Amino acid sequence: MYLSKISIKGYRLFDEEISIKFNKGINVLVSENGCGKSTIIDAIRMLLNEDDYSRNGVNQEDFYYSIDNSIQSEEINIKGKFSDLSDKKKIEYLTWLDDNYDAILNLSIIKKLDNRNHYKKKIWGGESSNSIFEWEALNDIQCAYLPALRDAKKKLRAGRGSRLARLLLNLSQDEIEEKRKTGKLMEIEEDVNNFNKKLSGKGDIKKADEMINKILQNALGSVFGQKTKIQFNDLTYERIVESLRLVFFSGTQINEETVYRNLSENSLGYNNLIYLATILAEFEGLKNNYTSPRILLIEELEAHLHPQLQMKLLKYLNGQAEKNDIQIIITTHSTTIASSTPIKNLICLNSIENKKITAVSLYDCRLDEKSEKFIDRWMDVTKSTLLFSKGVILVEGLAESILLPKLAEIYLRQYNLSHGEKTVDSLEEAGISVINMNGVFFQYFMQLYRGYQLILPKRKVRETKKDYEERLSKFKKKPKFEEDEYIKVNFIPIRCVAITDNDPDKDKNPTKLNPIDGNNPQLFYIEQLEKMTSNCRVYKNLKTFEYDMAISSKYNSKMMIEILLDNINIDGEVKKTLENYKNKIEECQENDKEVDNLDDIASFILKQIDSLDIGKGMFAQILFDKISKNEEFDVPEYIKKSIDFVLEL
Hints:
By secondary structure, the protein is an alpha/beta fold. The protein folds into three domains: 2-151 and 288-351, Rossmann fold, CATH 3.40.50.300; 163-244, no CATH class; 389-451 and 489-649, no CATH class. The protein has 25 helices and 19 strands. The strands form five sheets. The chain has a six-stranded mixed sheet with strand order 7-10-11-3-12-13, with helices on both faces. A five-stranded antiparallel sheet has the order 2-1-4-5-6, with helices on one face. A four-stranded parallel sheet has the order 15-14-18-19. Strand 10 (294-299), helix 12 and strand 11 (327-332) form a beta-alpha-beta unit. Helix 6 (163-171) packs parallel to helix 11 (268-285). This is ATP-dependent endonuclease of OLD family. InterPro entries: AAA_GajA/Old/RecF-like, Bact_Antivir_Def_Nuclease, P-loop_NTPase, TOPRIM_OLD. It comes from Clostridium algifaecis. Residues 1-116, 144-338 form the Endonuclease GajA/Old nuclease/RecF-like AAA domain. One of its GO terms (molecular function) is endonuclease activity.
């Protein structure tokens, strides 16, 4: 039994109803700021009557209201669905069951105060709000919460309500009840009693005790007098464990001479881990008391932890979730945690037009097995930034990822001037991520955004494997699919664009007026996406990124030639040819003429970038510095189109 879905309406950010689907085990909520991750966590806490939330209650600010206050919610509705119930659980949660044998829990809070100044709240199981609600079923759901701004040291310090005391009391609950029934003491109570007896007869303690009692006797007399005794705290088991505190040692190898230290001397990150360990210990110790569901809510798991610890902790939590049947729901802004989480366990929140929030479980994107495995392998810290973006541009290599943001700045400046309006000044300002694919792999990532998945034809009887694979390949490359050839699936509702090389034969020099068919195996995607989705596009160049930059203008070519000349140390034919091209371009600039063979120059530049030791990555960095200094460059048309699309210009 696990929480499979929660629906929220009228609560904080959510005016219209939003539903979030969860998996068994680990669930990681990712998004930019202000998309409601904490609101979702708090809605679960409120629905499940989690300790801290049940004490704090609901405030007026928890009801949705628009920025101008023209729209205000009069009611908060939260609905949870629990799936995968065992036969035993179906009986236990009988009054909660719907027609599919899922358990439904509802909470409604009306913005009207009762006599105690609390908002009117109603909770019920199942579809009918008039049914009798049995609290025992709700109390059987174990829910623990670690807040984002958690003070681990405070939670762990000795005192009533400390996390350590709670752990010890829960673990000893059955034994305490048995002892109380028989009038016997807990073993630790007997030990403390005996210790106090010995303590009272010790030197200065005995002397101080006698002095205090003597003064009280003389001052108050025998009628009004009282007796005192110096001893350790209350002798009940509950008060004893509340006096205990955790200490730490920085290391794992201990001996009799090991000196433990106070948690105030420990780092914030390690104290957070100790705090989490006490909760997991409580879950482990009480697994026989709470069979399921057991839900652990953690906001910003990465708090105060360096990347290696984040990954190690996430891996451990995933193991605990599987081993002890714990559902763990995490919020994060960490690309490390996002990239270390299997794609099917990620839930992506986005703020789209009119500030509407969407929640997409990436499991519902229905990735094919090959794509899912590919993304899980390739999703590193840099690529996982796409999960926190308002738009994505996928590029093939390092050169594009270096130069594209600068080219976008130049184009947007020109766009704003020509249109007489201010859009944005950069991709960064617009929240657009440029992701380096290190190759032509965008088709795998596009499946998160395109909104459709193919229904692949099955292999025919007596059809050879080779023939089937050829037929399958041809099917996948269709420009458009019929209704029975695909299904609509959930998708991340932001724009995604890929820019790719046309890759014609190396000896070919295409131009805008004379384009040439390329050899890039993914070019079929251009037409297919245009006909199948409004969310994704692929744009190609004439030949390659460097070639298209050079052929875009004589100014670009001259700048790129200057970089090559600065990095050639040997006089020879290459240097002589580059100098001749540079002189020719300068002459055309002076006379305001077009260069008649700019395609040959662009091809020669590309060849030298590929053959010289400088390499495409270093060349791109040097070109970036030159463009930044001059703030002038002619942006290739296919780059402009990709920016237009992702920014909806």
